Amino acid sequence: AQSVTQPDIHITVSEGASLELRCNYSYGATPYLFWYVQSPGQGLQLLLKYFSGDTLVQGIKGFEAEFKRSQSSFNLRKPSVHWSDAAEYFCAVGAEGFQKLVFGTGTRLLVSP
Amino acid sequence: EAGVAQSPRYKIIEKRQSVAFWCNPISGHATLYWYQQILGQGPKLLIQFQNNGVVDDSQLPKDRFSAERLKGVDSTLKIQPAKLEDSAVYLCASSPSGHSPLHFGNGTRLTVT
Known about the structure:
The complex is a heterodimer of chains A (113) and B (113).
Chain A: E1 3-5, E2 10-14, E3 19-21, E4 24-26, E5 32-38, E6 44-50, E7 56-58, E8 64-68, E9 73-78, E10 87-94, E11 102-103, E12 107-112
Parallel strand pairs in A: 2-12
Antiparallel strand pairs in A: 1-4, 3-9, 5-6, 5-10, 7-8, 8-9, 10-11, 10-12
Chain B: E1 5-7, E2 10-13, E3 19-24, E4 31-37, E5 44-50, E6 53-56, E7 65-68, E8 75-79, E9 88-95, E10 103-104, E11 108-112
Parallel strand pairs in B: 2-11
Antiparallel strand pairs in B: 1-3, 3-8, 4-5, 4-9, 5-6, 7-8, 9-10, 9-11
C-alpha cells in the first residue's frame, strides 16, 4: 500500500525567501503524485501533479515540484514566498491517478514579514 | 461554475447521537468522494461514488457510517451512533470522472462531545 511522509509539521519562511517543502512516498510502482494547498476553513486546492514524463512539474501560483525516483521524493518549491502563501500543504500519492489518494499529514507554512 | 456545496458548515453533537452531512457536487460531475480529515492528519478517503454506484468504500466504518448518492447527484453521509473519535472535518469532493482532478468543498466540521 502506498504511504506519504511529510517530515516537517511547521515551517516558517520570511516573505520573499525561497521555500522547499519535503515529501517522501512509498509505493512499489510508478506513483501518481500531487501537492494540494488548504487555507483555513477551506477545501483543498490542487497545486500540481506528476503522472509521468518531465520530472520537474510546474503548478499554479508559482510553485514547482521535482520527482526524484531514487530518493522517493516529490519536494515542493517556490523561489519567492508571498504572505498569501501561508496555508497547509499536503502531499498525496495515488495508485490510480486521482483515485484512492493517500495524503501526508501536512506541513503548515507560516510567512513572517 | 459553482463549486462543491456542503452543509452544515459546523455541527456539534453528543456521543451516541446521529448526524448527517450533505454534499451537492459540481453539475455534471460523475465521481463523488467523501474524505475524513482529523485534526493534525491528512484527509482519508471514506467512500467514492461513480454516478450512484459505490466504487470504493473499503475505509468506511460500516458499523456506524453510511453514505448514499441518490440519482447520481447529491450525497449524504451519516454517522449513527457518533463516537468521540469521529470529531473531524468531513470533506466532499467531485470530479468529472475518476481520472480528473478533484474539486473539494469547504467541509463540515463535526465536534462530538
